[in-house]
Design brief:
It holds the Pfam family Steroid_dh. The protein has 303 residues and is an alpha+beta fold. 50% of the residues lie in helices and 9% in strands.
């Protein structure tokens, strides 16, 4: 069978090209087409390709051409997504920023604040909470997460990292670890109930978040993009309890530090996670007709 690949770029001089395959639309997969295109143009490895039908609907590499509505002698449209970087690498870079930035501000106070001082119990607790949070995220990236999408455009890593490196990195570290919150300062005074209560809520939320990530991991066999309906702790109420618990964890940091910088980061992060949660919730309901109707996106009984 033959398939013609045309570029969505009208100025392209490499396309259209015609590829030949042994088999039928029912046996040839979109991945076979992507690999054949890579053989002809090594620069365009499968993760760099976006293949669509004549209606510009993206073709899933897990499906056959017939399942994708493509027949012999049809035209498939190609778009170059540009150089790609693995999602796992992206996450390691994103979360690695705060793990480097926070110790710099915490231990080099003489450099950033022009003088040394003793950190208050609040600052020590917040430092431990932030470092453990991002260390947990790094470990989850390596040992827990299974990604449905292998890569993303390389240039996006800078945009994605800015959120963590600046908002939860420089912004949070500079203002929380400053001398105005140092030992003996009124602004840093916390009762034991306030301090340890915040730590307890944070620890519960972080552990709950980990349990949610393990549940999601177990739904996807290694090396697949399989999707299934998640059930269990948190999922009976919302589609994305992992986002809910992360918001609760950072809210505990906010109320312990009382710093506007922590609240700023939490508001921005929660807003972004809510957008993602709504998108995932709609996707679940679209892909699974039997998806529980009583679930909300991220906030139980609300939205």
């Amino acid at each position: 069978m033959k398939i013609t690949i045309a570029s969505r770029n009208p100025k392209s001089t490499k396309f259209p090209v015609t590829l030949e395959f042994e088999g039928t639309p029912s046996t040839v997969t979109v991945l076979d087409v992507a690999k054949a295109l890579e053989s002809k143009f090594p620069k365009y490895y499968p993760d760099r390709q976006r293949l669509t039908n004549s209606d510009k609907k993206v073709l899933s590499i897990d499906k056959t051409l017939a399942e994708s509505g493509v027949q012999e002698n049809d035209i498939i449209l190609f778009k170059d997504l540009g150089p790609q970087i693995g999602w796992r690498t992206v996450f390691l870079i994103e979360y690695g920023g705060p793990l480097v930035i926070h110790p710099l501000f915490y231990y080099l106070s003489g450099v950033f604040y022009k003088g040394s001082f003793e950190h208050s119990p609040m600052q020590k607790a917040v430092y431990a909470m932030v470092m453990l949070h991002f260390l947990k995220r790094e470990l989850e990236t390596v040992f827990v997460h299974r990604f449905s999408h292998g890569t993303m455009p390389f240039m996006n890593v800078f945009k994605n990292s800015a959120h963590y490196w600046f908002l939860s990195g420089i912004n949070l570290a500079y203002w929380v670890y400053g001398p105005w919150y140092g030992a003996g300062k009124a602004a840093a005074t916390r009762s034991d109930v306030w301090l340890w209560g915040s730590v307890a809520v944070w620890a519960w939320a972080e552990f709950s978040n980990l349990l949610n990530h393990i549940t999601l991991r177990n739904l996807r066999p290694p090396g697949t993009r399989t999707r299934a309906i998640p059930y269990g702790y948190g999922f009976d109420l919302v589609s994305c309890p992992n986002y809910l618990f992360e918001t609760i964890a950072w809210t505990a940091v906010c109320f312990l530090s009382t710093s506007w910088s922590a609240f700023l980061f939490n508001i921005v992060a929660t807003g972004q996670m809510y957008v993602w949660a709504v998108k995932k919730h709609k996707s679940y309901r679209k892909d699974f007709p039997d998806y529980p109707r009583n679930r909300k996106s991220m906030f139980p009984f609300i939205a």
